[in-house]
Write a structure and sequence with these properties.
By secondary structure, this protein is of the alpha/beta class. It contains six helices and 13 strands. The strands form five sheets. The protein has a four-stranded mixed sheet, covered by helices on one side. Strand 6 and strand 7 form a beta hairpin. Helix 3 crosses helix 4. The longest helix has 18 residues. The radius of gyration is 18 Å and the shape is globular. The N and C termini lie far apart (49 Å).
Length: 265
Amino acid sequence: MKELWHVLKNKWLSYRFRFVPWVALNFKDKSHRSVSRGDDKITPDDVIVNTLLHFSTSLHKHFVDGNKNPIEASKVMERVLGYTIQLRKSNIPEAGTEVFVSKGTVTAGSIVALYPGTVYRVMEPLLLQSIVNPFIFRCIDGLHIDGKDRGISRKIFKSCVYRDLRWPFFPADLTWLTGDLINPLNCGQYVNNETPEYPCNVAYQECDLPIDRFPIELRCYLPNIYYSSSEGNQTKFLRVVALVAVKDIGIDTELFSTYYTVVHA
């Protein structure tokens, strides 16, 4: 019984940083991100699109021989973007895994990470996946992204990828489910909420990537796929959520965001 209580306590200490009621009640300084509907842009969408296109192209050129080593992916990131990130234990006690800048300096406005997962349109079924799931991200327009890499969420993401597979080209990145990231950016679900001691240094920015800008061979580097097939309704855009630096971020700095966002209609 003692061991069970210890396990449950540790899970709660980690989970609470993503539990919306707890977050709302523990904003001692009442800090929040306030945006107008459709006006949450720190960096222009075309900059995000062009950055992701350039980085994906660079990754593909480097891995054209099929040897997709995560260590090599970080080298490409350093060369192309000027910095790298990696997963480490958070500075917050019991907060679990977090994202740190491991090399270089991230300048304000730069993309630091992407939020991976299955994209659910309004009214698509999400109840079972949402149970005890702290990784559901709600977009301003009501779309949801399930960034959990285990359980039913993992199975659904893999199922959607194989459903839209055009052999040998995968329509989305599967490596974020295993941690051996072929695209180092695809780990934004591990960024914790800010605290009074650790203020936010990144913010979420939603962006629709024009599918026709990303050839099929590059889509395996993107971490998102729609729950319902994109083939039948000829979807022209893929929703992604980028974590964008709100200020310069130095080496060995942990990333923190603001979960509590007020959207003004």
